[in-house]
Amino acid sequence: MLKGLNQDELAKIEKITLYDDPHTTAGWDWLSKFTQIPTEHIEIDRVTDRKSLVDVRMTASVVTDFYRDGITSFIIVSSDSDFWGLIESLPKAKFLVMYEYEKCGTAIKNALAQHGIYYCAIDDFCTAGTEDMKRAVLFAELEKHLPSLVGENPLDLTHKIYEATRVTATMKEMENFCNRYVKTLRLKVNSEGKFEIEIQR
């Protein structure tokens, strides 16, 4: 998504702050490797398994940025619609909201439109340059499974990797990844004279 923006547009983004909890994908840890924009990753522990505090923490941080640091414009990229309370609490701030089709209902879209807040679906946004990041995240997850490969079915392992990273893919894309990278894993001797498994990148 960021690689689809030109340099002037990127220069307007002061920082990226990622809020999530331990139940979300490890893929966020890789974002800073694919952009020069300062990136902060804040992981918030849950009080209970059923209740995430991500929205509360994000609201507190945005309010602080607005009043203390003088930041007046925010882009919210969210997989749900729990951000409305934040928007209402800062009527003088400017917001752009990006949501997921399946997780944002008509009511919240109508509320955004009535308040003159521009919104769009992440699904429709340019995904230029995301393949490199997806591949890096998938390789990192595959490497976690290397010590316990014996007895694993290659396609089952591929499904586990995609599920763990939450990378969206068709069955054909997963089969291609399996055939190209999982089934071609190679045993080699490293510089220390020890066996290791290598991914054919």
The helix count comes to: 7
Q: What's the CATH architecture name of the largest domain? A: 3-Layer(aba) Sandwich
State the total count of DSSP E strands: 7
Largest sheet, in brief, is:
3 strands, parallel
Helix content: 25-40%
Q: Indicate the structural class.
A: alpha/beta
Mean pLDDT: 80
Q: Distance between termini? A: 24 Å
Spatial order of the strands forming the largest sheet: 3-4-5
- CATH superfamily label of the largest domain: 5'-nuclease
Topology as a string of helices (H) and strands (E): HEEHEHEHEHHHEE
Shape annotation: elongated
> What Rg is obtained from the alpha carbons, in whole angstroms?
20 Å
Return residue spans where pLDDT drops below 50 for at least 5 consecutive residues.
none
Number of domains: 2
β-strand percent reads 15-25%
How is the CATH topology of the largest domain named?
A: Rossmann fold
